[in-house]
Amino acid sequence: MILSIEKKEYENGRKFLAQIMGYDPVHFTPEQVNEAIEYLLPSSLYTKRARPVFKEPHLVFPPQKQLQCDVNGRPLNSYFYTTHQNFHKIMNEAIYKLEEIKLHVDQSYFNKTTVKPTLKEVHCATSSDFMSKINLMKMINETISDAQYKQWLVLMKRLSEHPLSYLVEEFIQNYKAQICGPTSEIKLPEPFMDSVTNRKCVQAFGQKKNSLAEVTLYMPGTGDFTVNGARLLEIFPELGNREQIVFPLQQTSKFLNILLCIVFLKIQVIYNRII
């Protein structure tokens, strides 16, 4: 109703402006309207957003979803009284999902069972990020404040960082902006039993320019890192270089609750190898 009134007033003003500038009101384009406003109302304000404008109502007033009611006039959404019904709806859905996985943990405690996600169920936390405030407002078709967006972001991060967040992975991905491809396409090396040490181990190979690296991870271990038979500190005296090597294991231990002290990493590097 309000938008129709504003549109009618805009059309009357546009026709009057066209007559002042000597243009045909029927073929008076928005570009000509902007040029006429700049000519009739010159401004030396530095910020362009503070200068006078004359735009169509749907460009000035953001679209708002009307209150949906049944034939008897009763609102269909139970959060209509909050004035941000769609925002509070997704907030409550996130809280219900969080309480659901908490209940799952409690039930496993009372049943004396341990719930641990497998490698396929653990999602990559760095592969995507939550959508921005603008995209969230477009999704729910409502205008929210920075405080409301921060509140929603804290709740979603708390939900995604839960050890059993894979149970509600589909709900979390609805509000994430994908950055890299799915991790399910990555082929992980299969562990095998070492005949010499009689321990489980995994081997992987990598190449950087003309150097080849063979990495063997033993479990259980002592937490030592050896590179070409030497300690990690001797090969990489800089702290930043050592952090880059240890980071993958730290990220893995974050999701699977594996301590770094119970693994042993053996690295063999061949330098200046011509492939």
UniProtKB/TrEMBL annotation:
<dbReference type="Pfam" id="PF00380">
    <property type="entry name" value="Ribosomal_S9"/>
</dbReference>
<dbReference type="InterPro" id="IPR020568">
    <property type="entry name" value="Ribosomal_Su5_D2-typ_SF"/>
</dbReference>
<dbReference type="GO" id="GO:0006412">
    <property type="term" value="P:translation"/>
</dbReference>
<dbReference type="GO" id="GO:0003735">
    <property type="term" value="F:structural constituent of ribosome"/>
</dbReference>
<dbReference type="InterPro" id="IPR014721">
    <property type="entry name" value="Ribsml_uS5_D2-typ_fold_subgr"/>
</dbReference>
<dbReference type="InterPro" id="IPR000754">
    <property type="entry name" value="Ribosomal_uS9"/>
</dbReference>
<protein>
    <submittedName>
        <fullName>Uncharacterized protein</fullName>
    </submittedName>
</protein>
<dbReference type="GO" id="GO:0005840">
    <property type="term" value="C:ribosome"/>
</dbReference>
